[in-house]
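New to this. Please check both lines:
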Amino acid sequence: MKKNKGMAYAVLGIAFVLFNVIAFAIPTAKTATFWIAYVFTAVAFAMQIIVWKFAFKGTDTLKSKFLGIPLISVGFIYLIIQIIAFAIFMTFPIASSWIAIVVCALILGVSVICLIGTETGREELNRVEEKAEKKVFYIKSLQVDIEILASSEADANTKIALAKLAEKIRFSDPMSNDALADIEAEIAQKVKELKTAEDKTVIITVIDSLITERNKKTKLLK
């Protein structure tokens, strides 16, 4: 990751050097309009570093890296548009300086708004996904607990009953809800009792009934 970022910064640095070579090698009047457009373009290059830092912050997973791509894309589009604006003002250096200020400021302002909106959207998406992951954890954890009990059960009939219960849990709606807190707590308690019970049959029946009730309530909450 660090190597890729280093290469990206190197490419950005080379692009900025080439930009300067072209900007100052072309024989054109270096008017106030030229310098205004030049400064805004230099800012656009510098902004890429800031954008990349925000885009790749906390990228510990492949998903988070991909979520950073839209932010980088907006930053890149901003840079391209600003370079085009600079090229136009360099071609027409006699244009009024206030025009260059207004145009470049608009490009910068709109780009910053888009960058903020993109970053906010990414953070909201992460928040929603994290919340969803927490909600599905309950049923997945429950399924694993029952499967472990089934694998270690010696009695053949109880083993089959546990396997069927695990299968029922597996096909239950994984999304939890605050309104299901009581029944889910009751199921969790029964599973805890199941781990130490001598006769598991009765408790398995109770859990099966509670799972059925939970599934029905889950449908009503949608």
